[in-house]
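Posting this for the archive.
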Amino acid sequence: MTDLDRLDAALLDALTENPRAGVVSIAAQLGVTRNTVQSRLRKLEESGAVSGYRPVLDLPALGLPLQAFIGVGLEQARLPQVISELGRMPEVLEVHSTTGREDLLVRMAAESQEAMLRQLERLHAIPGVAHTTTTLALTTPVAYRTQPLLDHITRGAGHGRSTPAAE
């Protein structure tokens, strides 16, 4: 685990807002040196806290307006095979192992209801899938985000690793 402070949170916020921003630009925005930004980024990457810089895709703008969350119940001991098959489906955006009635939570995207139905039929045909529960997403009033959580966990952490917060 990496100990984050408010400078780390501000750095991650700047990268979230503009992942293509250069180190010099971020340093100027945060009022720190280029070396500080480079050092912080390197430590975040080496710790695994930051693992990539990806574009945020607008799926409806790409012709994929329909998203579904599918709870998948499995037959015993079939988890690896089912996950492998789900990984081969390009419409599968993510898969989470879960507790409760379902064993997996699968997020899928489709261009239409008919396409989603075909994907669900393919999912049901995977050996080891016992049952599913499908919930269609109508809107996304709060998109995936991390900054409020980072701000919360770094509140009071100071603006430097050795500087206590001045409130």
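The domain at 6-55 is CATH 1.10.10.10 (Arc Repressor Mutant, subunit A). The beta strands are 66-74, 92-97, 104-110, 129-137.
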